[in-house]
């Protein structure tokens, strides 16, 4: 490829591209990096602060991360794995703040306790079992359980004020939780990338990828016409737009993947006297028949220095894969290799379809009633409805070829083709750093061993489990908490 070839092209200016670009610049400072973004600024889609709940997912309150075992026990390994991944992400942020490559941590992350909350005797028993299963794990050693309304009221008045005394309730509380403004973080990372020589192309939607020798030719629209840019390596981090681009590339690793778009909405209040009653992020338990993505949560948010509460998510549906996308997105994503898995997912996930229909047709009164199940004293006049981001749930294939609806983050890497991409949604941004390190390992296997020393300067625990009470782990956790201005470890 020619001398004008880009070493690393990042498609989409969201948290994933910003994280990968930052890692690349530290590992290979002589490589040139270019970012192609369709919109007017970075972080306007999924990474936007108002398009997500801003939870630094650490497994402290997300009850859908637990799986019921046949004998009645609970498998909490997913919560532990995500907790470990967020510890890696925190180390990376801490290193950049300490080096002055990110602004003061309070610009993008704030200490906000996490709390799991349930009502009803059966759910209280579940939460106690969930707490007991996690309490023995070092990362969860400070998780506190209570079924005393007075104690829960100390954690959040909003959850108990106006609630009937006869209703059993319980909560599990972790003081070291976080609220993250991923929009502010993304913009800060990209500003630092550009300051170190990366080029950011705004209003440059990528329309196609074509093999060109060992690299790729990227077709993209510009404010004045059509252009092509050669690149040695391409990362597709375009959120809901990633599936179509990966399909257009022709890499075999993208075969069979489909996408199911889900819209989101939140109720929001900025009324200070209401916001003060709930200084935590509280996650509930999804009702029977409701998928995990429908678990209710009442989140304290800090965005641009302003505090608010969000409640939701309320799901909706339209065929667009991005808020700025086309209503033809879903139909354009259908291929011979994924139509079978997509049809089988539709057949096998009737509960999800029923849930979405119910959400789409829900009246404002029903939406406020859902809020009052967590916050009984909520007043209609204090809340407004806002649109959140689009989530494209990944449809993959199991060993028999049937479709499987995946609710996590799917990394697609084609090492021999110098191309990688990311599909899926939550916990997404919270696990950006370990996911991007895994991408580096899979896509640049011949170089990765030579990068480990530099990576450990950014992530001291690289290659080791953080779910341990050993001195080295506790020292890392304490140092990160101090640098980021967070509570506990």
From TrEMBL:
Catalysed reactions, as listed in the record: (S)-malate + a quinone = a quinol + oxaloacetate
Functional pathway: Carbohydrate metabolism; tricarboxylic acid cycle; oxaloacetate from (S)-malate (quinone route): step 1/1
Top-level taxon of the source organism: Bacteria
Keywords: FAD, Flavoprotein, Oxidoreductase, Tricarboxylic acid cycle
This enzyme's EC code(s): 1.1.5.4
Class in the EC hierarchy, top level: oxidoreductase
Named cofactor requirement(s): FAD
InterPro entries the record matches: FAD/NAD-bd_sf (IPR036188), MQO (IPR006231)
One Gene Ontology term of the molecular function aspect: L-malate dehydrogenase (quinone) activity
Annotated family: Belongs to the MQO family.
Stored HAMAP family: MQO
Record protein name field: Probable malate:quinone oxidoreductase
Source organism per UniProt: Occultella glacieicola
